[in-house]
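Q: For a teaching handout, I want to show students what a protein-ligand complex looks like in token form. Below are the inputs, and the small molecule is zinc ion. Please produce the holo structure.
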Amino acid sequence: MDVGPTKLDYYEDMFKLQSEATILSYVKGDDGRHALVLDRTVFHPQGGGQPADLGFIAIADSDFKFVVQDVRSKDGILFHYGFIKNSTEEADSMFEKGKEGLLYVDESRRKLNSRLHSAGHLLDVCMKNVGLGHLEPGKGYHFPDGPFVEYKGTVPQTELQKELELDINKLISRGGKVCAAVLPYEEAAEMCGGCLPDYIPKGSTPRILRLGDYPGCPCGGTHVSDISDIISVTVSQIRTKKGLTKVFYNVGS
Ligand SMILES: [Zn+2]
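A: Here is the structure, written as tokens, with zinc ion included.
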């Protein structure tokens, strides 16, 4: 398929849930699933510990709809997997190269994903507040079925769980603006407390996420617009195994 990387509209504006895009290709993947490839998208793919956005893509001035059931990124190209609603030959022919699509991201799912994901960032801040700043944040799993953040290092099993929960809810009630910006490497490093993780290539322009006045971190995900939009967090379990510590949490409604 001869198409370039998809422009990630959610990268610049993570609160935009509707947009327009041009269809570049309607493909059938190796696994038999059909996918739309667009020149740009507001759909966040599964990745970075965050589930994919769902929703639909409509053809302008028509009733034709493509239901998005999954979104994946491969080599910078985003594949919107799903099916054409009430598929007929006529409907299928509407989703060809060059057609304009109207994109609609499912708002309630995106909101929940953004709250879960943002809570993971805020837990990183709280780990420092409770004296565990020496633990290096690892991967996160921000799916609704059992979200956790992982850290390299072990912690004493004390009253930490309660302490973390109190601290994160204190920060949530205090609130603070959430911003994401693509920055020059040096500026990004400064915003993240002086240095960036090794996986960010030197000289690149990473996207930096910042919650309130706390130090930033590189992130490509979607987030709440204010810390208070996380609403509340419960820390259900802290598990240490093989030199790694997992903090299990969830967001309240
Ligand atoms: Zn993030």
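A: Two things your students might notice: The chain has a mean pLDDT of 94. The pocket of zinc ion is lined by residues 117, 121, 209, 219, 221, 223 (CB under 6 Å).
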